[in-house]
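Explain this record to help learners:
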Amino acid sequence: MTYFFPSSITSIPKKQEILSELKNTVDSGTNALRILLRSFELEPNSKIAIPAFVCDAVQMAVIEENHNPFPLDLKAGHTFWTNYDLDKIAEEKIQAIILVHLYGFIHPDTAEIIAFCKKKQIKLIHDAAQSFGIQENLLSGDGIIYSFGPGKSTTAAGGAYIKNLKLASNHFIINKPSFFSFQNSSAKLFLKSRIVGYKKSKIENLTGLFISKLSLKSKSISSMSKFQLKMASYVIANFKTNEVLRKMRYDVFQERIKNNSLIELIPVNHLAGLNFKIILFIENNVKKFKSFLTENYIPYFSLSDHISKNEDLENFNQNADKIIEISCESSIAEVEIIRIANLLSTYR
C-alpha cells in the first residue's frame, strides 16, 4: 500500500517571495545531517547515537560521514519514542546524539538530553525533519534540520534546511542548481504528483524514472532550487492557516476509534502536536490489520517495513512493526477522512 503523502499546495502559486529564514538549504534531509556532522569536526569512526526506529536516511548520513551509528532501543510499552539511555551513552563514549522528534511532537526527554549533552560536551542535533512548527525555542543544541519531503508537516517540493549552522566554507562545496537542472525538474514532478486531481503524463512519468536513476548515482550536494525555495516558502507561510483543519481531522479519527479495543491511538501528552498524522498501535495480528487497510483502500505507512531490523533491541523487536501511521493532512478531503475513520471504527 502506498502511503498518501499529500502536499498542502493544491496548485502551483505564480508568485511567492522566498523567506529569508531559508538560508542554509540542501537537497535532502540526509545531506542536512551530513553537513551538521561534518561541521563538528569529530574524529573518524566516532560513535553517533541514533534511534533504531527512524528513517534509514539517518543511519546513512552517519555512515557517509565515516562515523559509526549506535542504535538506541524504543522505550518500553506502546510508544514510538526512543530511549536515549544517558548512562549507556556515557559508557559508550558517544560523541554526538541525533535527537529525533517524530510525527510533529517534541521528544518527551528533550530537556534532560539537552542538559546532559551540555554537561558532557556531547554534540546534539535536533532532527525535526518531520516536525516544522514545533516549539523551536525548546530545541537548544548544535543545529536543527527540517525537511520538505513526503510525509512531513511541510511537504512541499523536496529539500531541507538547517538552523544554527556553524560551518567553515571549506567543509562542503554546495552547488547552486540552475533553472534547467535535474533537481529542479524532479522537484516539479514531485509536487505535481501530490496536487489533488493532477495526472502526470506518460512523458512526465518516464522523465521521473530517468531523473531518479541519475540522482541515485549523484554524490554531489546542492542547495534547494529556486522552485523548491518558493514552494517551501509558500507552505511555511500558510502553515498556521491549516492548523485548525489538521486538528479537526485528528479529532475525527480520535472520536471514531476510541471505542475500538483492537486499535489504540498512541497517546502523546508532551506539548501540543502538529496533528498531521495519527499513530496507531496494533497489539495483535498486525498482518490482518494491514490487509484490512489495503482491502479498504486506506493509505498507511509502517516505518518498520522500511528500516533495518534489529533483533538485539528488545522493545524495538517486540513493538516496532505494531506502529502504523495514517495521514491527517489538511489537504485531504474531509469526506475521505470520515470514510477512513468510520472504517477503522468497524475493524474486528
